[in-house]
Amino acid sequence: MLVDKSAKKIVDTVTPTGARVNGPIPLPTNKNIFTVNRSTFVNKKSREQFELNSYCRLLDIYESTQKTVDALMKMELPSGVEVEIKV
After folding, report:
1. CA neighbours within 13 Å on the CB side: how many for 53?
2. From 3.30.450.40, 3.40.50.1820, 3.40.30.10, 3.30.70.600, which CATH number describes the 2-74 domain?
């Protein structure tokens, strides 16, 4: 999975800078289900469902230095992966 590969890449980038990493911890999956009519006018009972899943991982980084922050800022992750940094 793309999220797991990205989390491993973050851990591999952060550990040589001397920081300690706790995780990745999988968080519950958010599932959004959308129901749409198949037809615009007739066949009201004919519907189609789409599902959107959001996967999250939590990484705790302890004893970070300026090198750690620089390494995280320079790292490139694939599209579709969003990183949120809280200090």
Report:
1. 6
2. 3.30.70.600
